[in-house]
Amino acid sequence: MSTNFSNNKLCIATSNLDKFNEISAMLADLSLRLYDLKSLNITSYPNEDGETFEENALIKARYYFNLCAMPVIADDSGFCIPAINNQPGIFSARFAEPVEDYFKAFDKIKFMLKQRGIEECHEIDAYFICYLVLFFNETNFIVTNGKINGKLNFNANSYNSNGFGYDPIFKPDGFNKTFGEMTSQEKNSISHRSIAMKKMIKKIQNNEN
Description:
Elements: E1 9-12, H1 17-26, E2 33-35, H2 53-68, E3 72-81, E4 87-88, H3 102-115, E5 125-137, E6 140-152, E7 170-172, H4 184-190, H5 192-206
Parallel strand pairs: 1-2, 1-3
Antiparallel strand pairs: 3-4, 3-5, 5-6, 6-7
């Protein structure tokens, strides 16, 4: 496998500035010229009809590679709660649609837990999972993944904090604050995406697949 970056360029397949900045920081040591979808004037989206995070990450990577003609790194990640059949899961972003209202998604999770007789104050297991695909062409791509376990945390104070998505309601095991209450440096050192990215960088450096 060849990790050949065209003119040291790499597209990070997201229009979410928070996610772009997070992934960019993780890739800083590779000295690549990084682009998000907005900077490439790409506004379309693929139909993410995969049944797993890995399938959806590959769908996105392949789709944007065909539009931008440079290597693409795409991720599919989600927030999973075993007590409600690992939902939101691959539908994590769609829980907050149509306007990315994650507070509405939090309320939906509370309602689903209540339907199962689970009070939100209980210690409820949850985890974040991420699959990354670095796509060079149809026969040359790398897949890695990362996972971090923790607990749900509906502390209202954490809602007005840093982070994005489900960060404000996730407290990783071994820590006394949520992802949303951590600095970006703290979160990036332990997150599911960071775990997947460290595996990815190691494979890039070792020319592995």
